[in-house]
Amino acid sequence: MTGDPAEVSGSHRQAARERAFRLLATTVGALFLTFACVGGVFVWYDYNARLVAHTHEVRNGIADVLQALTDVESAQRGYVLTGDHGFVEQVEDGRERAEAELNAVDILTADNPEQQARIVALRGLMAKRLAVVDETVVQRGAGDAVAAIQTIRRGEGRAAMEGVRRIVTDLEAEEALLLAQRARQAVLIRSALITLLVGFALALTFLFVKAQRDLSLDREVEADTAERLRVLLADRSLLLDEVNHRVKNSLQQIASVVRLQSRSVSDGAAREALEKTLDRIMAVGRVHEQLYKSGGQVGAFDAGHYAKALAHDLVDSLGREDVQLTTEVEAHVLDLRQAVPLALILNELVTNALKYGCPADRPCRIHVGFGTDGQDYRLSVSDDGVGLPKGFTSRTKKSLGMRAVEALARQLGGRLVVEQPEAGAAFAVVFPRNP
Fold first, then answer.
1. Is the CATH code 3.40.50.300 the one for domain 279-432?
2. Which of 35, 124, 249, 295 is 20 to 30 A off residue 350, Cα-Cα?
3. CB neighbourhood size of 164 (10 A)
4. What pLDDT, on a 0 to 100 scale, did the predictor assign at position 399?
5. Dist CA 21 CA 15 (whole Å)
6. Residue 414: what are its φ and ψ, rounded to 5°?
7. pTM of this structure
8. Contact 94, 87 (CB under 8 A)
9. Segments making up each domain of the chain, as ranges
10. What is the mean predicted confidence (pLDDT) over 25-51?
């Protein structure tokens, strides 16, 4: 490779930036296209799911019509044989159910002309069957059981009921066919969705591999350029003694190279902030935020300052003016290995105090403390709220939060202490100073 290393570096850095922009544009385009396709597939799937549910509803309605008519027949026979007026009520109830279910099926099949024709025929046959039932009920009610039995034996009601069953069978067959078609569509949609997701995964894999390769090339260019600049500086330092009249020009060249290189260097430590959606994630995010602002103390954070700030954030997030927060914290710099567990413990204990110890119908006070306890650190959270159940211990209350606090306390090499003051509840985590 020939030429000024600064110019070569600028050329390669420009090419690397162009590759990065192209890769970013491709990724954004792929994401947009994929989300659009996935959204379309889900809309399609939702529509098909509604059709399947609609088919099931129609089939259930048809079955309910037939069952209601069957109940009417049974009640009719019971009344003719026994004369018990309770069967008349059953006849009326069955009639109402049959008409209501048939009306519902009529509405559900309004977009299907073939089914509508069957519904019309079914309604006529059902009217005939119910007319025969009414006739026998009137005859039996007048005390003429023989006439009612003769009316039944004429067979008009039986013939109408057989016609009802035939039409119901046709309705069921049509809906079963529609259901099979829609089930095949559902399979097709799932296949399309799986294919789309697999393709998206392959595309992301390709883009990731390409990005890694471009980053590797970029790092190689930086290392090569840095080495060439070091060689250049050494060579030009040697030339200073031999060519005094070119000192000024040589220094200007070096300054130009250094200035060009400094303008092209990006901050690799910058990261886009993550949106805080859960309290635990917020707590861990605060740890890292404080680490980034520690002013040179990499991997360490001020636990006292953190505890006070997080507790205020949690209380303020509720928007309750009747919750009073007091803090008593000492400034202690902890190791990063202790930061995340301690943050999660504090978040859990304060959240529990707000959620369970401070009911909405009464004012409450929460106290957060952090400091030393002999050779240990002690983090405590207490409230003057409703208190703990009688006999409460961390072992008897195996909620996810308590289990998490106990596990995190063990991770710190410490223990969870549950206290039961006269009013409210108090928890503390005691752990050694040296992790």
1. no
2. 295
3. 23
4. 66
5. 10
6. -120, -155
7. 0.39
8. no
9. 1-266, 279-432
10. 74
